[in-house]
């Protein structure tokens, strides 16, 4: 799933379809869509009632004939038709009319690390159904690293941790590529589920479905740190009677319940470091870990990682939109690859020119020559991209 920057610069729109939110970046217009990946459907007529924030508010409050669905799970499209309908309504008629004017519309999309070919194909089919003639797939880890300003193109190690709603992805990057990475099926939803189960078993209290982030109620102040509040009042429904009830919850017990799923995240960080070359691990002592994703804002999570790893941990300035902003930076050509100065430019009597145009030392070692593509070559590529073959759509 390696895509060149030259191909990404030809794309017009970038899409980041996550388990929690869908974001769309249009070249020249910036971030135009940032809505929850939720749709409400009338099961009797099949009509789409609401999408985005309004559909999320309907969760748990709908009659039998209205169903609230999430077409994206864990960063993978599980319902292509519903995902296309959701994107059409999120983009709006005006923006879709502008995109239809482009004869050879190209799109870029982020996919989770080590996703299977079927998941990649589902993402491609979703965007092709919206009018894209070609779809380029970019690894979420690389896009997020570019979006938060890490020097991914340099020969130094950078460690990034993408904390999503369904998964957590950890990787070490160098020279614009992934050296080693791990994908853990633990995210913000698993942490919320751990808190909900703790309140259900220990206090016989069920939280309403709208409390998708009960951590905002149970972990005020300093959150996971011991300096947080001693207790917090929670409102919910009694398991036995079904009546509304309020209980005062010990936040120390809640912190223990949250630490259980986070143990897998710490194991993933240790596995990535063990598989990483020693030279890159030495670089991580100075650079540390960069956290991105909506779940990176969990109170006290960064401090827990500092205590467990002994490394510096930073949270990106805009952790929730780093991925789509990284895709947008690639589309607008703000990212330049590392260019090595060819040693052949220096006059050396011990060098001669080979038959293929590359300079070769007298010892027979070829040097690195920076090659640039001519405008005619790019024009040929654009002409050939007008009608791509079905097998050429996506990578």
What can be said about this structure in brief?
This protein has 395 residues and is α+β, with helices and mostly antiparallel strands. The protein is 34% helix and 25% strand.
Structure description:
The protein is of the alpha+beta class. Helix content is 34%, strand content 25%. The protein is built from 12 helices and 20 strands. A 5-stranded mixed sheet has the order 3-2-1-9-10, with helices on both faces. A hairpin with a 3-residue loop joins β1 (13-17) and β2 (21-26). The longest helix is centred in the middle third of the chain and has 24 residues, at 251-274. It is flat. The model is unreliable at 344-395 (pLDDT under 50).
Q: Give unreliable regions as ranges.
A: 344-395
What is the helical fraction, as a range of percent?
A: 25-40%
Strand adjacency order, main sheet? 3-2-1-9-10
Summarize the biggest pleated sheet. Answer: 5 strands, mixed
Overall mean confidence score, pLDDT = 80
* General form: flat
Rg result? 24 Å
Find the count of extended strands (DSSP E, 2+ residues).
20
What structural class results from the helix and strand content? alpha+beta
- Give the number of helices: 12
**Which band does the percent of strand residues land in?**
15-25%
């Amino acid at each position: 799933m390696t895509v060149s920057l030259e191909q990404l610069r030809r794309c017009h729109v970038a899409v980041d379809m996550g388990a929690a939110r869908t974001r769309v970046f249009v070249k020249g217009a910036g971030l135009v869509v940032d809505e929850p990946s939720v749709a409400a459907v009338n099961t009797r007529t099949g009509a789409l009632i609401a999408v985005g924030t309004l559909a999320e508010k309907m969760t748990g409050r709908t009659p039998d004939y209205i169903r609230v669905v999430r077409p994206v799970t864990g960063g993978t499209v599980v319902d292509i038709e519903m995902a296309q309908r959701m994107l059409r309504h999120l983009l709006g008629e005006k923006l879709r009319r502008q995109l239809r004017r482009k004869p050879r519309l190209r799109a870029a999309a982020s996919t989770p690390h080590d996703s299977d070919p079927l998941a990649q194909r589902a993402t491609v089919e979703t965007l092709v159904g919206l009018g894209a003639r070609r779809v380029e797939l970019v690894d979420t880890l690389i896009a997020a690293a570019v979006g938060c300003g890490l020097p991914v193109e340099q020969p130094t190690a950078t460690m990034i941790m993408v904390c999503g709603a369904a998964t957590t992805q950890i990787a070490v990057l160098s020279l614009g590529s992934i050296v080693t990475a791990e994908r853990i099926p633990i995210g913000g939803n698993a942490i919320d589920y751990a808190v909900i189960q703790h309140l259900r078993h220990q206090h016989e209290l069920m939280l309403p479905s709208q409390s998708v982030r009960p951590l905002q109620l149970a972990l005020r102040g300093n959150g996971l740190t011991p300096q947080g509040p001693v207790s917090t009042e929670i409102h919910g429904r009694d398991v036995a009677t079904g009546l509304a009830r309020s209980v005062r919850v010990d936040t120390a017990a809640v912190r223990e319940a949250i630490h259980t799923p986070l143990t897998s995240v710490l194991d993933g960080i240790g596995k990535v470091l063990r598989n990483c070359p020693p030279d890159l691990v030495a670089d991580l002592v100075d650079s540390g870990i960069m956290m991105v994703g909506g779940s990176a804002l969990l109170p006290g999570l960064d401090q827990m990682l500092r205590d467990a790893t002994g490394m510096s941990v930073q949270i990106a300035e805009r952790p929730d939109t780093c991925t789509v902003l990284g895709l947008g930076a690639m589309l607008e050509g703000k990212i330049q690859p590392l260019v090595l100065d060819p040693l052949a430019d220096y006059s050396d009597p011990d060098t001669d020119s080979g038959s293929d145009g590359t300079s070769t030392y007298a010892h027979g070692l070829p040097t690195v020559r920076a090659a640039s593509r001519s405008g005619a070559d790019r024009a040929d590529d654009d002409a050939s991209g007008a009608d791509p073959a079905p097998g050429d759509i996506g990578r």
